[in-house]
Amino acid sequence: MLSARKVATVWLFLAFKLVLTAQIPLLSHAPVSFYPGVENDPGQWDLDQAPAVNATGHLVFETANSLLQHWANTRYRIGHTIVPGTIPVGTLLYHGAITGPHLPTSLDWVAVEPDHSIIFCHGPIETGCWHLTLAVTQPMKVLYFDGNSAAKLPEGTMDTQDLVAWSEMKPEWVNNEEQRIMDLCKWGEKYGVNGFVRHSEVMICDFTSHMEVVSFLNLESTHIGVGPGTDLPDDPTTVHHAYEVMHSASWRENYPGETRIELDFSRLISFYDTALVPSLVPRRVGLERWDHRVGGISSEDIERVQDRLAQALVQPPVTTSGIDWKTVLRVVVDRYASRLEMMQYLSNMTLDDRSVFDQAQQVQRRLRTVLLPYTVFAARPSNTNTDNATNSWAEPVFRECATSHTASILAHGTTLTPSEHLLLQAVRETTHEICRVVTRMWASGLIVGVDPFYPPEQRPEADRIHTLMGEWKEDVTRLISWLDWSVWVKCRPACGIEEMCYLPTWPLGFFPAPSHEDDASPFQDSASLWPDPKKGEWKRPQPKCIRRLEPYGF
User: What is the pTM of this model?
Assistant: First the structure.
């Protein structure tokens, strides 16, 4: 029996050793720095080197990360991205018939929510109105315009659509929707485009194709779509309906956004692509993102965009590399957004000398947590004062952090489309700056002596810690401002159960387009409810809580 036990023990030992041996290739996977030629330029790991003023990688990143999300595209309403996509089989679409019980046969609009389409369901109170529900029967090829691209405003919301339809901007045609849909559909016919997606609506080129009728119902009429769209309805029931339309839009405000439309990121066109659209680079100098326009683009760049778009639409609707770019972008946001927000919160506190050390350690712990997967054992402060002054000893941590999301794509030579190269560069630039700032903050805290993992022999002086906290505050505030992720734009404090968080949004309460019949101000009868469109709340939308129950108000 003893001999049998020994044999069994030896066998288990050998088997265990074999398993460990088999795992060695995984456990010893070469780090990023071992990939030849990948991210190994020492000049790019300077912790004091901020991104160029005219860099746009972070703008490509955030616009791509925000596609089909209402919140971000309401905040920055002037779109800079065009993306081919598909509406899958089985998707329900809705159409309110303005002209009575007549099925559309050619060009018209549908909504992805019935709450929205019912706005256009017109008819006398006595006879009601007609509302159409359709189901997609074949994958429907569409083109998506980001921003608040359904908002008929003269300030640039229609720019990208104008370029596709007419090869130039036509602000005087801002309300000429019939001509716009006609010319867009004519342009898209040669590419097999069935519709154009704008915010929460779809311009359909042919109602007799790719869809079937589910129902065509005679409903009670509402007054939501009666009168100027900028006015608040008069009766309480219609006011309630108007607010519920906004509430239904809020379901798609944030990630994952509108899931009933599938975008092909491998064919994305961005006007922040400086290689594709160099003429817009000088036009953005000194401007905040609110004021970025596609207007002013050169004729050469228009032609280049149209060529790229044509190439994208004739390619098979499959991502060449197989990379899920939507997830790649979101993983970065998920990893850093809440932690950076907490660091900003902690560094903004006013502290006395007794509590500042503990607070600095709180921030340092979070910095260490962010960098833990990248803190190579060899990264330690040097005995050389010069190295410590520049924090050059921490550069390996910076490099591993910055390249963690993209190194394998670069190293294995994955075949990428031009759009994917743009997205890859956007992720690289964005994570490079995040990791540069976070690594520098962590290294500074370690040198000063507030890192709990390396407790100093003597606690640093309070003045030095206050200085460190001030530097951290500037660093994290500047980083969050540069990234400008919409995930951080929210009502503070959070809204109550009777409220919803709201961004000033077209059309309710805002000025009509110049060609509107009535040039009178829409604020004359409701000045207490609506913001002034010429002032900050409209030009720079900020979130605020509004009531979902009576009495309503903004």
Answer: 0.88
